[in-house]
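Posting for a labmate who doesn't have an account.
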Amino acid sequence: MVKRLLSALEYPECDVNVNDEATFRKIVVWLEQNKINKANPNVANGLKNITSNDWPNHFQKYQEILGLPNLQSHQEQLQWLLGYAVQIETHNNRQVYIKHAVENLKATNVPTVVTENPLDKLDFHSKEFAEGISKVAQLLNITPHPDPLVTLKAVTKLVTVRLSPQAQANPSEVVLKGTPFPFQDADLGFDLNDPVLNQAAKVLRILYIHDLRHLQTRANELIVAVQNITANPKTDTKLGKVGK
């Protein structure tokens, strides 16, 4: 992967040993000078002197400038730097890559697919779409989000859970009953020194527990399904006896 990224960035020598300290330093310097260009003059000059004993200190400062994670090996560090450089290169030459992508698409003999699904023709960023989703959310008593796609996700979740044929046939299975949990009075376990942040943290914790409970339920269902297939001898629970 490292060699491919070096080749994509047009590094002069792609067939290199990245575990070699001198080679690693040369590549870091080349990337900074030709692709990244984020280091301040002091760090950039320090990196250029690849034989200096202070080079690791300058590289540490360079990592802090770029936000490079604390990776152990040169292989991991170099792969991160190469990925970062590719992102910059792609952003700086965005029109070039888009142009090539369009040309390649036109050159490919792809059959035209005509869809009859009206949803495929929607402009999800249009004003009309945002207004329509907002009206649907209001009908379902859902608070609209500034991003209509987030509102659409909430609408989809409610319709899937509450308005499905199964839910309509057995509403008691999906409509929760009982006393609401007083999360405002629950002990968070830590203090963020801000009442609003504390309440938000409590809500996030409850949502996390809800997702975890759902995951556990699905895992249990999977275990039961596998056991129904692999159980030997097979048990007919309806008859209350073990089958032959």
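Reply:
Got it, the structure tokens are right above this. The first helix runs from residue 2 to 8.
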